[in-house]
Recover the amino acids of this structure.
């Protein structure tokens, strides 16, 4: 699916999974990554992240979603990108960078804001899901204990 944009989509997916939101990440594992789009319905939405050069798979999945009356939301870099032209809504991000590579920082900011807004609509359900996520991460000791940034202790 999206190549350089994959981390942005994954980050939003991760935020939503921690907060109990229903989300499915379409990726390319074993060539079946886009298959879950077949289960999407008009009350769902497809969020597609793609910047130039746009990937054929992202465009194809978005076109399929549109054909099934699934709303398409694009996070992209131009109002005339293939995604923006077909999307029901577009969020435009800058990608210019002094390096050879595009910057994904603005797209990550969009993922953070969307994740927070969507989670915020979950109310008590979101709070309960976050508590379950914290309990799990603590049970498996996923993170090192917090230390003071100045003393290291």
């Amino acid at each position: 699916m999206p190549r350089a944009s994959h981390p942005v989509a994954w980050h939003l997916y991760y935020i939503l999974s921690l907060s109990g939101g229903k989300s499915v990440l379409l990726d390319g594992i074993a060539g079946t990554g886009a298959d879950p789009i077949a289960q999407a319905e008009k009350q769902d939405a497809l969020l597609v992240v793609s910047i130039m050069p746009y990937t054929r798979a992202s465009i194809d999945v978005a076109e399929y979603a549109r054909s099934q009356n699934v709303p398409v939301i694009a996070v992209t870099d131009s109002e005339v990108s293939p995604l923006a032209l077909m999307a029901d809504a577009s969020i435009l991000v800058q990608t210019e960078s002094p390096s050879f590579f595009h910057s994904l920082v603005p797209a990550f900011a969009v993922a953070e804001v969307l994740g927070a807004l969507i989670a915020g609509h979950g109310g008590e359900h979101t709070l309960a899901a976050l508590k379950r996520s914290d309990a799990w991460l603590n049970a498996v000791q996923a993170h090192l204990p917090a230390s003071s940034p100045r003393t290291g202790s």
